[in-house]
## 1
Amino acid sequence: TQAAGPHCSFFCVGDVKQAIYGWRGGQAEILESLNEQLPGLTREQLDVSRRSARPIIEVVNRVFTRMPDHDNLGDHADGVQSWCAAFPRHETVSTDRGYVCLQAAKVNADDQLAATLDSTALTVQQIVQQAPGYSIGILVRRNDTVARLIDHLRRRGVAASEEGGNPVTDSVAVQHVLSLMKLADHPGDRVARFHVAHGPLAAEGG
């Protein structure tokens, strides 16, 4: 979106699809209201990707044009219908091949997050076995989920590292070292003693 006058100009680039990050404050309405707030804007659609492979763009088109087909939209049906009607079909200049698969974890009323993470870990385990030597990146919604996902992966024998902006104290290994240091400083700390005695450092120390 661009606007220009004798003494000023305005240039804005945005993607309404980023409103999926609503928990981080993403609001598509901000872009939609620009024409009302700044009359005379010239709008240009940037619907051709120069980065993503064709299978990825095709899935994007399928998801964002067929959402009204969902049978459980409830009170959101009108909003979804309106949004999808305005969604421009995307194209790509890339001729790279690729593969996309959308999966949903089984519903678990007791702990849905645990079920989702375990399902993710299982999928990653299968990919590692089928394509050894390749690296795999996993994106999660919240940084504090990273440590739990790492735990699920390691239970399945998948080597994984934490790279999500988490504090170093979120690491299980760091927590064990901290408990050892606390025990050295306060030998009577029974919580630290229990943590050390039931962790990998116990075997190292005999």
## 2
Amino acid sequence: MLFRSRGAVNEVTVHVASLNTRAVTELCIRSMRHHAGMPFDLVVGDCGSTDGSLEMLRAFERDGWLRLEVAPEGRRHPEWLDRWLAACPTRFCGFSDSDVEYRAPNWLRDVVARARATEAALVCGRMQHPPATFVHPRTGAARRLAPRPTPWLLLLDTEQVRGRVTESFGYRDVVDPDAHGGKVAYDVGAAYFAALEAAGLPWAEMPPEWQSHYRHFGGLTWLGARGDGVALRRRAKQALKLATVHRNLARARRGHWGEPSTSA
């Protein structure tokens, strides 16, 4: 097992999907290990990166930081999540986007404590409650967006959800004549959340004052899958975010974040 304290059995496995996001993925891994506040196992899935991510991840695997899974033919984000939840060997199954930076001590310990205190089957960084009307900026498709827990930071209690929630994390549309555009859009994680609620399972989100414990950059995941079609304005925003990533990564490397002597 990975990142395990001597003689202990970890109860949390965190999963991260990566594609051509070398710098921000390294920052995510280093910061999550440095600030976790408790031991955990880490699994990283890569869809065949060509930017040096695979070499970096293989080096971390050799050092015992993580277990690497590679899908060279590609794999969509919800597919990673569905597979990982089904196969997770520990009680708590965590998901993190690769462009999340953990900024304060004990982030994972806090999330697990929240799950225990509330007896929640699902704990998220926060809930998204989108507006009732949405029009896609490129296609013009009109939808009502379903609420969902933020899939970029999520913890599930496998003992509660297994056998009771079988819905996929994938996107799907549901016809609803009363909805804007006649359909309800369930983005990644939304349909799973709806099924969890329908099963009567409790859920919780982290309190607002905890939100500063992590930073979700947004727009820096899956760059290889959509980089060619990104608008110039969006690319400029990505460049600014990446400048912050490289600055913070340099600090994490200098501080040897994630190495056993600096990790919980």
## 3
Amino acid sequence: WQMQPLSMAVLASLMPPDVETCFFDDRMEAIRYDEPTDLVVISVETFTALRAYRIAAQFRERGVPVVLGGYHVTLIPEEAVQYADAIVVGDAEPIWDTLIADARRGHLREQYDGRGQRELRDVRPDRSVFGNRNYQNITLVEYARGCNFRCDFCSITAFHKAAQSHRPARDVAEEMETSGSRRFFVVDDNVVSEPSKARELCREITPLGINWVGQASIHIAQDDDLLELMAQSGCRGVLIGMES
């Protein structure tokens, strides 16, 4: 399960060109706590929260400001803010320039709110931060964030408020083509929750001759035309959650 952490590549792409960026993957390597740095940013999910808070504490003890973001932080900000100098709730892209500018001045706000400002048109992950780490031989790409379903047990519904936003399908196809990879995981929480958008993606990537997998809801079984389009575009399987 040591796949590329796509969120880190997206954050790296947002960094100003004059900012030196160093990435550590805690699953694979030791973090160099004593290496000089001006700011630490950690993405937090619930199953990594305790570890993230411990890492944050190590840097803060050394006088390095820490920013926490991600699903867990957005859903329980009152907890996360106790372990950070600043937190990001919602998407990072809308507020990142402001956050970096504040960090340069040494005046981070307690909270940056990227909810309700999403624009996915210019997402261009910087995968150079992955270096030569031995990740699984599959490239992660994002087409959409969120899901239109309203499952009351689901963190995706809680985070995205039963909404889904898409990148232009052409941009996704270009990213796949230029990556040099032939195997992809489309990381969308539900790649078929808007069938018309799923069709757009399939049409764009069919000429690439790639293989891909994704995550989908079971209602896809009722749409033979879309299933056929997915197969033609290189889909080799989907993960379907049976939950309640």
## 4
Amino acid sequence: MKTTLLTIATLSALALLATACTADEPGGGASAPAGVQSALSVTSVLRDPGTGVEIDAHTRAEVLLPLEAGSIGVFRSQGTGYTSALNNKKYTYSAGNGWQPAATTDSIMLNGDNANVCAYYPYNADTKYASSSALPLVSGKYTGTDVAHDPNDLCYDYNRALNAYSRKTEFKMKHAMALMELLVGKDELLSDQDMTLTSVSAVNAASATVNITASTPTYGSVVAGTVTCNPADNDKGVVIPALPGRATPARMLLVPLTPASTGTVIGLTVNGNPLTATIPTTDIAKIEAGVRYRVKITVTPVIMQVTGVDILPWTDVTVGGDDHVYNPDESI
């Protein structure tokens, strides 16, 4: 019985191989020249938490984290010998099998000629994600944590030429957006006053599209606007602590752009009252993808002040249940 089972399995495997080599590929591609045709093999997906410039060290660092959950969207161009491009095909990770097409119709096949392949994360089935040259970006509240990826935090890896003879690839996903982290505290002169933060904003771009096909992404269809969000999970807001050492964090995803010559305007709503301050271009000359901008803000009895700006590698920060983040090595 054992020999019979092995024989059936072997015959099945041969039948599947023959089908893969002779049938047209799913999604409208053509059969390969001289019968050569192989499926794309995604060997691994790594997620780049972001790169930034440490103000003091002036160094750049790359940390790659293995991505072993969720789905990615994959694109294949219409290379020589292919009848069409394949757009936004879903590849999903499963333990033991790695990254595989979510369905037969998601399989990306390669023939003997080169075709460009790129990918993004996390996968979105919306028709707006049908083109690798115009994936949508939306600025707003950052909801990512060390265990859950923000669905609006689009990450990508750009085109590489693959074919049936060179079909294996590793995607190193990089952030297409920037992260702005506002650390808000109040002056010690206000330590006896209850202060609640219900809204933060930044003059930036409300939305845009990104072309992920090249190593340096390009942005289009930029819609200017003021990005506003509530840092809390409810309409009650979060308490602003007294300085030094503690701060209320508020995080926003921002479309990369060059701020106006007057700088980036930051807004807060504290106890129902609007406050504004400007980050000069000497501190933030350009908002870049994959960079975390940590802006330190102090509310005083008279005004709101930007007291410092750090440009850092993008790392997910876990915030305790008291809505505060503690910075033991610095005073903001």
